[in-house]
Design a protein that fits this description.
This protein is α/β, with parallel strands linked by helices. It has twelve helices and ten strands. The chain has an eight-stranded mixed sheet with strand order 4-3-2-5-7-8-9-10, with helices on both faces. Strands 1-6 form a two-stranded antiparallel ribbon. Helix 4 links the parallel strand 3 and strand 4. Helix 5 packs parallel to helix 6, helix 6 runs parallel beside helix 8 and helix 8 packs across helix 12. The protein is globular, with a radius of gyration of 19 Å. About 5% of the residues have low confidence. Keywords: Oxidoreductase. GO terms for molecular function: oxidoreductase activity. Belongs to the short-chain dehydrogenases/reductases (SDR) family. InterPro entries: NAD(P)-bd_dom_sf, SDR_fam.
Length: 348
């Protein structure tokens, strides 16, 4: 099992695009936002006026490595109080030390969090709420990719449990805090679900809730894609609910891109030098990978935008299934019923 930023090399194939779009991507040509595929997290946050209003608090899951750690570093550099939820507290402490070495006044709070466990998510949320901090930004970033079928302690396929169910529960528990913070401060709250372009690999007939939970006919890449589709459907339904409540909180999904990692480099021996060179040009650095998350989290240009999908720091199109509002509502209902049942059983 590994984090989503080190997903198997075959996902790079999803970056195949029409020639014009590919050239635009490789050249890093800016889109309407003024940023593109080559933009870094520091660049996209450099002139974010949100920081001028008040000290913000951002909660980042999976902030102990990869694009989560880079997101934490850059937001802390811009004056944001950062709360990192992480399974590996040793790595999290190293990230905090590194951030505070660069930005001595940075406030970085670490709390243990295993998103595959409903009990851990509940404990984490209780600990966070006990701090009595505001919550302006929630970044549902953590993710895993498991080549082999594994189950969480709640007996649910671990990719779906971690990437989707854990974040669903986390968001449900903390949503009222975000709405309350936005009302008190007058600053729009923002939720970001880190998804993936691989969500589009899932076809309508291959997205069955109970089959996903049980790992039926398990395939690691398919399970990852299903969890990332669920992340976007979650965005669609929560955006609808927030609008109905007239809440000043937005929620959007982002595709960070395929980030350069050790696992990607390990595949070089299986490829010709020329093929590896071409493929490597489609990969992003960690800072480029964190840029879209940071852009959506703090840019004035994304104010009021909710229920959308972003990549390369610009609004983009997701699959027709990910855009299906009825599918989003059905998934929310199934998830809510599952969590209600499991949490009630845990209390008995």
């Amino acid at each position: 099992m590994c984090y989503h930023s080190t997903l198997n090399f075959n996902i790079v194939k999803q970056e195949r695009k029409p020639m014009k779009a590919t050239l635009r991507y490789l050249a890093g040509i800016a889109g309407p936002s003024g940023f593109g595929s080559n933009s870094t997290a520091e660049q996209v946050t450099q002139h974010s006026s949100l920081f001028l209003h008040s000290a913000l608090t951002a909660l980042i899951t999976g902030g102990s490595s990869g694009i989560g750690a880079e997101t934490a570093r850059v937001l802390a550099k811009r004056g944001v109080r950062v709360v990192i939820g992480a399974r590996d507290m040793k790595k999290a402490k190293e990230v905090r030390k590194s951030i505070q070495k660069e930005t001595p006044n940075a406030e970085v709070i670490l709390l243990e969090l295993d998103l595959s466990s409903f009990a851990s998510v509940q404990t984490f949320c209780s600990q966070f709420l006990a701090l009595q901090l505001p919550l302006n930004i929630l970044i549902n970033n953590a993710g895993v990719f498991s080549q082999n079928l594994e189950f969480s302690q709640d007996k649910i396929e671990i990719t779906f449990a971690t990437n989707y169910l854990g974040h669903f529960l986390l968001t449900e528990i903390l949503l009222d805090k975000m709405i309350e913070t936005a009302e008190k401060t007058g600053i729009e709250g923002r939720i970001i679900n880190v998804s993936s372009v691989i969500h589009s690999w899932v076809k309508r007939g291959g997205f069955r809730f109970n089959d996903i939970l049980s790992g039926k006919r398990y395939n690691g890449t398919r399970a990852y894609a299903q969890s990332k589709l669920a992340n976007i459907l979650h965005v669609k339904e929560i955006a609808r609910q927030l609008k109905a409540r007239n809440a000043r909180v937005t929620i959007n999904a982002v595709h960070p891109g395929i980030v350069k990692t050790g696992i990607i480099r390990a595949h070089k021996g299986l490829l010709t030098d020329s093929l590896f060179f071409i493929a490597s040009k489609l990969l992003k650095t960690t800072s480029q990978g964190a840029s879209t998350t940071c852009y959506v989290a703090v840019s004035p240009k994304t104010e009021g935008i909710s229920g959308k999908y972003f990549k390369d720091c610009n609004e983009s199109n997701c699959s027709s299934l990910a855009n299906d509002e009825s599918e989003a509502q059905k998934l929310w209902n199934n998830t809510h019923a599952l969590l209600h049942k499991r949490l009630r059983q845990a209390r008995i």
